[in-house]
Write a structure and sequence with these properties.
This protein is an all-alpha fold and 121 residues long. The protein has one domain. 72% of the residues lie in helices and 0% in strands. The chain has helices spanning 2-31, 35-49, 57-72, 77-92, 103-112. Helix 2 (35-49) packs antiparallel against helix 3 and helix 3 (57-72) packs parallel to helix 5 (103-112).
């Protein structure tokens, strides 16, 4: 049993490192104006963290928020619309299969949507 528990712990640690790396790559791409790459890194981080431990909820929603922001900044109308939908879904908290969205993430999503900013970000 001890070896199985150790294997699970090692797997969680590896997943945590991977998630952190994806998020960091997303931030780097976003800072360099590579919004498509950034959105993809954040999407992957979000998808991979869906089954993560509950204490990773802040990370899960931060990855989703940044995916929406990256898409919203893309300059492509379809991507910007998709980013806006992601941001609204975060603010609405409609996905009950996931942990609740932290208040600070909801606030940031609301302040970033096009409706709230008059079409500007």
């Amino acid at each position: 049993m001890a070896s199985a528990a150790a294997a699970v712990d090692a797997s969680r640690a590896a997943d945590s490192v991977l998630l952190d790396a994806l998020f960091c790559l997303g931030i780097l791409a976003l800072q360099r104006g590579r919004t498509g790459d950034a959105a993809e890194h954040f999407r992957l981080a979000f998808e991979r963290s869906r089954g993560a431990a509950p204490e990773r909820a802040q990370f899960l929603w931060s990855a989703r928020l940044h995916e929406g922001i990256a898409l919203a900044r893309s300059g492509n109308t379809a991507d910007a619309d998709r980013g806006d939908r992601i941001l609204r879904s975060i603010a609405d908290g409609v996905d009950t299969s996931l942990p609740p969205v932290p208040t600070d993430i909801v606030s940031r999503a609301l302040s970033t949507t096009r409706t709230q900013t008059g079409g500007r970000r």
